[in-house]
Amino acid sequence: MTHLLSPVPSDPAEPACLPSNADMFTRMLKLRLLNVVAPVYFFTATAVTFVFHFCFFVPTIFPVPDAPLWASTTLHTALFLFSMFNALGNYIMTIRYPAASAGDSTVPVCSPHCSDKVDAHYLLNDRHFCKLCRKVILKRDHHCFFTGNCIGQKNMRYFIMFCIHTSCTCMYSLVLGVAFLTMEYSISFEDPLTFLTLLPLSTGYFFMGTISGLQLFLVLMLYVWLGIGLVCAGFCCQQVLLVARGQTWCQMQQGRLQEIQSPWQNNLKDVFGTRWILGLILPVQTVETCSEEKQD
Fold first, then answer.
1. What's the number of CA atoms in the CB half-sphere (13 Å) around residue 98?
2. CA gap 159, 152 in Å, rounded
3. What pLDDT does 260 receive?
4. Whole-angstrom Cα distance, residue 33 to residue 258?
5. Helix (H) or strand (E) holding 105
6. N or C: which end of the chain has fewer CB within 10 A?
7. Closest CA to 248 of 102, 94, 143
């Protein structure tokens, strides 16, 4: 299998800046550990969010089961379950339809001058060999540690929808969490500095014995929801832009951005399919996954 190798330094006396075997082993070990820890973190945060919503937020914000509040409770619960169902569903679809190329079973051997020593190795025809997945990936974009596999042509749509619904779930939980703190502990968030100083003040109050561990944990989750929501929203915007350009993150990193060959509408259609509206509301397959022949 032919490789596109990085150029050898022009000066023979100048050593190539290549990582040692020990550095490679250490970094690979860290990446493999992250590949295990990230999914555990995601499922733990999902379970905690579910418990907070139904055990604390809904009973406190909607305490009286009269007709108007019952309708509001049902609406809020339906929106929350819809976003979480789609986030988990697209997460599973991202793993179920991996981006591995079924026609490439040979594991390439790196050249001594290969610059891609740890992450991925560029091959021909928009293929990469991922050293974490140990597979050849068709039109590889990046390796997602939260799913434990690579994102490429076959699962890009599911990854983007996963980012959208995860961001919505986190931001929605953040709003409900702020409402819960306002009603339960009379904390006013009219001043923007309140949220910025909430975590350090809550940590100090916790060690002073003023607030409980549950209160501190809820405050910490507010920042977790904000962080995950912003990161997923940023990933989503970046990936949609790259898809519209017909490019991948790997190509951009390698400086291989080329003139757009197809209109952005066709590029989006290749990823999201013709039934893209259905994909917005349900984690279902909307594009063909066995179309490698078209990319050769």
1. 15
2. 9
3. 55
4. 35
5. none
6. C
7. 143
Contact 198, 222 (CB under 8 A): yes
* Helix and strand totals (H; E) in the chain: 9, 5
Mean pLDDT of 100-113: 63
162 has pLDDT over 80: yes
For 107, the token pair is: 């594991």
Structure tokens at 169: 């779930």
SS3 129: strand
The listed range with the strongest mean pLDDT (52-56, 67-71, 281-285) is 52-56
* C-alpha torsion 184→185→186→188, nearest 10: -110
**Stated length of the chain:** 296
In the chain, % helix, strand, coil (3-state, to 5) comes to 60, 5, 35
What is the spatial distance between Cα 166 and Cα 150, in angstroms, rounded to a whole number? 18
pLDDT reading at 44 higher than 90: yes
Give the whole-angstrom CA distance, residue 275 versus residue 280.
9
pLDDT at 18 over 90: no
The predicted model gives 86-94 an average pLDDT of 94
Catalytic sites, residue numbers? 144
Single out the residue of 43, 36, 118, 37 nearest to residue 84, CA to CA.
Answer: 43
Q: Identify the band that residue 263 occupies on the pLDDT scale cut at 50, 70 and 90.
A: confident
Q: Is the pLDDT of residue 246 over 80?
A: yes
d(CA 84, CA 86): 5
Q: Which of 30-34, 122-126, 130-134 is predicted with the least confidence, judged by mean pLDDT?
A: 122-126
**Cα–Cα–Cα angle for 285, 290, 296, nearest 5°?**
135
pTM: 0.83
3-state secondary structure 248-280: CHHHHHCCCCCCCCCCHHHHHHHHHCCCHHHHH
